[in-house]
Amino acid sequence: xxKQANQPAGTPRVMIxxxxxTIAGAGRxxxxxxxxxxxxxxxxxxxxxxxxxxxxxxxxxxxxNVGSQDMTFAIMIELATRINALFSAGAVDGVVVTHxxxxxxxxxxxxxxxxxxxxPVVVTGxxxxxxxxxxxxxxxxxxxxxxxADREASGRGTLVVMNDRIHGAHSLTKSNTTSVETxxxxxxxxxxxxxxGATEYFRRPFRKHTFNSEFSLQGIAALPRVDIIYACxxxxxxxxxxxxxxxxxxxxxxxDGNGNMNAATxxxxxxxAGKGIRIVRSSRVPTGKVGRNVEIDDNRMRFLxxxxxxxxxxxxxxxxxxxKKRRLNEIQQLFYEY
Length: 338
Fold this sequence. Notes:
By secondary structure, the chain is of the alpha/beta class. It has helices at about 40-45, 75-90, 105-115, 135-150, 240-245, 265-275, 300, 310-320, 330-335; strands spanning about 1-5, 15-20, 55-65, 95-100, 120-125, 160, 165-170, 175, 185, 190-195, 200, 225-230, 250-255, 280-285, 305.
């Protein structure tokens, strides 16, 4: 555990929970794109940004050290449980989670639903590895700690701080494979900005989150299986059957346009829904809502719609919704509220 001392007693306390990712990545050359995620420890990352001492009393814990393509629900549960314990004990004023960018939006949204506190939770990462020329990780970490230490960040849900921008977990998505400006919030816009630790806020989240979320992980060791199936021209309908046969309790369709799929897949999905499998129509389109009963008779088919949530986040919400028995209309309401 990394620790910084010799600061005034009133300085905010921030815990950094590290999970790996590009921000902890190392490459053979500082001037080439190849690297391996999750090679640098949280101790080394904190030591590389000594300016953190002026912002907060920082401690670090290594929860995992993986590329975020290998992020698991088990790690997410561990993160949420640890954050809830830290806040319940009054041990810290804010938490930063370092994370790879590939699945960052999913973990951020998971924490947005399962951390029961108004205190700031800030997820950050990097698009360039720790060893790269002009690595973006150190400044992202500095800004993330500044936001986690800021009282004005309280009550805004889980935030993602990248490239001087503060995003809400509900809205952001990754938009570019390599650019440092990869994260955007195309539907609801930014929460604010963080410029060398100076924060400015534009709004609060519109949906339920954190302290007013109904979801709890108490006593939960594993989460139900929910699959995502990507819609496309002439998509094979038997993908629905394969998912059900493998034990999925829910399926999210990354649909064409307004959550559409071909007639054969609609028929198979409706058959699965009739057997109690929860089918959510989302969209592969980057912006816009998926509405009920537009081109598909959702009421008759017993389908759900994701509203604003993209397929990965719709999956996260459905996974948590399935932790207890809920009627179809109750699950649909969750997609409008969260």
